[in-house]
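Researcher: Next sequence.
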Amino acid sequence: MLSSARHAFSRVPCRAFSTTSTRAYDVSKLILLGRLGKDPEIRTTKGDKEYASYTVATTNFPPPPPNPDGSRQEAGTTWHHIVCFNPSQTNYLRTLQKGAQVYVEANFELREADPSADSSSAQAQKQIFLRHESIRVIKHAPSHNETHE
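Model: Next structure:
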């Protein structure tokens, strides 16, 4: 019995890391823990498909190291723009509100600048394109009634 198990496992490659093309796919994933900067917006592509667009704000913590004089800059906020093309997730995103604390997983790709674009436009700069994979609400935004009590 032991020899048959050993024989079955002997055919499985045992390399932990490989640079060959036998890998099924590569992954580029970004994980965000932040707050929705505004209510998600539902938009339509040129092909008439709905998608959701939303923004997550994260605060860089800890703040940058102290300056030579001992002063320290404030921690900065980074705004991440994410798009979601999954219809069921788009419907869920409609229910979320600005201020909700969320955990987001997104695939990303770096898009090269368009050399023919106007230098002051976004297309003339490298851009990170974030494609929604999943979202979890950590804490719902306070309702309008709760903020005035």
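Model: Residues 2-10 form the longest helix (9 residues). Helices lie at 2-10, 87-93, 144-147.
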